Amino acid sequence: MSAWHDTREELRAFALGLPEAWEDHPWGDTVVKVGKKIFLFLGVEEPTDKWRPTFGVKLRTEAHGHALAVEGARPSGYGLGRAGWVTVPLESPLPPSDVLIDWVEESYRAVAPKRAVKELDGRVT
């Protein structure tokens, strides 16, 4: 399996371990939601001629600029970029995994209901 597959699976597994998180497949893409809100876009499982592997997260802190500094990263399409969503290519040189995990957690916290965030905060690390 390629490195980007491993990174994608690490992000997916972390996201699904967050309170009330679940996987969905609208439009044929993989997303992770909390309640009805998406907090992680993972795209399709296999690249095609038109699709390259990416992930998308909603970032409101300095992490937003950091994510956009990744080679090939861009504000997400369909107007989501205006709300802080960033699409990051999985095939680019990426920051360390702990940084990517932090981005997923920040995205989760941006959309999760307060009770889910409270549950997350109550977990022992």
Kindly name the structural category: alpha+beta
How many helical elements? 4
Mean pLDDT: 92
- The topology string of helices and strands comes to HEEEEHEEHH
Instruction: State the CATH class.
Output: Alpha Beta
- CATH architecture name: Alpha-Beta Complex
Task: Provide a descriptive summary of the structure in words.
The protein is of the alpha+beta class. The protein has one domain (3-117): Alpha-Beta Complex (Aspartate Aminotransferase, domain 1), CATH 3.90.1150. It is built from four helices and six strands. The strands form two sheets. The chain has a three-stranded antiparallel sheet. α1 (3-16) runs parallel beside α3 (97-111). It is globular. The protein starts with a helix and ends with a helix. The mean pLDDT is 92. This is MmcQ/YjbR family DNA-binding protein. InterPro entries: YjbR-like_sf (IPR038056), YjbR/MT2646/Rv2570-like (IPR058532). It holds the Pfam family YjbR.
What distinguishing features does this structure have?
125 residues, alpha+beta, Aspartate Aminotransferase, domain 1, 3-stranded antiparallel sheet, 4 helices, 6 strands, MmcQ/YjbR family DNA-binding protein, DNA binding
How would you summarize this macromolecular structure in one to three sentences?
This protein is of the alpha+beta class and 125 residues long. It has helices at 3-16, 63-68, 97-111, 114-122; strands spanning 21-24, 30-34, 37-43, 54-58, 74-75, 85-89.
